[in-house]
Structures are given as C-alpha cells and as structure tokens.
Amino acid sequence: MQNEEKNLIPRTKDFARRIIKRYVALPKNNVVAQVLGKQFLRSGTSVGAKYREANRGRSKAEFISKIGDCLKEAAETLYWLELLSDENLISSSRLRLILGEANELVAILTTISKRARGDV
After folding, report:
1. Residue 5 has pLDDT above 90, yes or no
2. Could you tell me the residue range of the domain that residue 49 belongs to?
C-alpha cells in the first residue's frame, strides 16, 4: 500500500466525523433536511468503512471491486451535499471545505481504482 493510500484511513475517518457534525447541525423540524441528511450521513460515513474493507480484500479482484464501492459512496456523498446546498439547507460557505474534501477523495479513489485495474 502506498503512503497516499495509507493516509486515507485517518483521512476518511476524519471525513466521516465532519459529515456527522454537519448532519447533527441540520434543522430537526425540517423533513427534507432530515431525509437528505440521513442519506449523506450513510454514504459519507461509509467511505472510510468501505476503504478499510477494500484494503482487507483477499484478492486483487476483490480489492478492485471494493474500491469501486468506496468510490460510489464518495460520489453519492457529493450528490447529497450538493442537494443540501441547492435546497439552502446548509449554506454553501459551510459546505465549501467538506465538498472540497469529497471531491478530492473521489479523485484519489478514482486514481487508486485505475491503478489497480492497470488503466494508468
């Protein structure tokens, strides 16, 4: 495992903790905020769990598959964050950093996936 990939373990955990904080800050009396929030809470906290699972894969094929799952969760998190912003449920200024991190994680996971498949 390369250093960049090892650094993703604490990085994805920190990402999940930031997701949790954003979810907790959502208005409790707004049904849309709670529905979208639960979606981004699930996907955002799954990124790190899926990444750890991928690194415990029993074969290269399993690693590639599980990294793909991890990438899907990261991309889905971006979607929910964008919706929360579009619906003005979280201000874009409060989402700027977490959106940036989500985009970086998608880029890194895409590169890892391509390298593992031999596409790079």
Report:
1. no
2. 3-117
